[in-house]
Amino acid sequence: MDDSDFQIARKDLIESLGKGLSIIEAFDDEHVRLTPSEAARLTGMTRTAARRYLLSLVHFGYAGTDGKLFWLTPRVLRLSQSYLGAARLPRLVQPFIQRISMQCGETVNVSVLDGHEVVYVARSNSPRVVSIGYHTGARAPAHVVTPGIAMLSTLTDEALDDWIAEHSFSGFTSYTVTDRDTFRANVRHARVLNHWITHQQFDLGLSGVAMALKDRKGECKGAMGMTVQSRAYTPEQIEAQLLPLLQDAVQTLRPLL
């Protein structure tokens, strides 16, 4: 039975745990340090409740404070490390992405879709002294990175429309696709191609290629891809040189997922 098929009765939920986790999620690049009032605004709870959760995080070592502002501590990384250590996907794909990396000299990533963000859960050890791409645990808006489009292409049209309606299409470069209709057309095209290639959508000078990782039932479990220097590969070269390596690995992995 898939996790999405499991229904949890409300009486079995510990809502305070969810609220505590929402406080942790309130911290990001724009909110590195928060006051209780700011945390309350971001999470929709009262200032008093937000302050109690923040103080609890301090007590258990997940946050620090100077009495006014609060910030997360490195202990929070234990939460992500627990996932990476227990999850089957990162361990399963590691030999495959390492082999591809040795064949082409580029860094290979595997990622999953978490709502409206792509989360990178596995990364090859690059044969280059200086490598590019996303490190394990990194997050990126799904509309600007190739794995996001690859994974979204596995959704039904109705589910895709719902996702697009709720997504914030921020622009990062002059190449970023922010028009909803254009983005929808791109995702549907990726569904036909069974892969996608992007050019400088998130970072100038970088291109990407990715394919959805599907299990034997055709359900998407993540995406495998590469980020490369745009000056090193034309889209045609990416398709001719890098895509076949991904296709072979994705096909081999399918019965194992």
Q: Describe it for me?
A:
By secondary structure, the protein is α+β, with helices and mostly antiparallel strands. The chain has two domains: 14-75, Arc Repressor Mutant, subunit A; 87-256, GAF domain (Beta-Lactamase). Helix content is 43%, strand content 18%. The protein is built from nine helices and eight strands. It has helices spanning 15-26, 36-43, 47-59, 77-86, 88-104, 146-152, 157-166, 180-193, 235-253; strands spanning 63-65, 70-72, 108-114, 117-123, 139-141, 196-199, 206-214, 220-229. A six-stranded antiparallel beta sheet has the order 5-4-3-8-7-6. A two-stranded antiparallel ribbon has the order 1-2. A hairpin with a 6-residue loop joins strand 6 and strand 7 (206-214). Helix 2 (36-43) crosses helix 3 and helix 5 crosses helix 9 (235-253). The longest helix has 19 residues, at 235-253. It is globular, with a radius of gyration of 20 Å. The two termini are 14 Å apart. The relative contact order is 0.10.
